[in-house]
């Protein structure tokens, strides 16, 4: 369950994530996404444990990236759908998945052949001296 001290924050996070107010960013961790605020950042990280139980962890960080606090919601928790939805929406926005889908649909509708990537040009094969 969402800790009581985070209840209002989570409600705002849900609302602002859905209306597109929060610009989620990718991180080096493929399952973690960040939202930058003036003095803090929030991250949402999803995953599964060894027994295939899914979770979402929300972490509060300061401007140096130091973890201040966090909580985890498991797929058996009553608040699972709410936090899972925030995480999945953050992932879709940070990775621009909807833009990728629109681009592919546009390409599929064009009257052109869709096939393998073009072969690299010879200058792509040139070695760069180190």
Describe the protein in words.
The protein contains three helices and five strands; from the N terminus they run H-E-E-E-E-E-H-H. With 130 residues, it is α+β, with helices and mostly antiparallel strands. It has a five-stranded antiparallel sheet, covered by helices on one side. Strand 1 and strand 2 form a beta hairpin. Helix 1 crosses helix 2. The longest helix is centred in the last third of the chain and has 15 residues. It starts with 6 loop residues before the first helix and ends in a 21-residue tail after the last helix.
SSE map:
Elements: H1 7-18, E1 25-26, E2 32-36, E3 40-48, E4 54-62, E5 67-74, H2 80-94, H3 97-109
Antiparallel strand pairs: 1-2, 2-3, 3-4, 4-5
Helix pairs in contact: 1-2
List the keywords.
25% strand, alpha+beta, 130 residues, five-stranded antiparallel β-sheet
* Helix coverage percent: 25-40%
Radius of gyration: 20 Å
Along the chain, the helix and strand elements come as: HEEEEEHH
Class from secondary-structure proportions: alpha+beta
**Overall average pLDDT:** 92
In spatial order, strands of the major sheet run 1-2-3-4-5
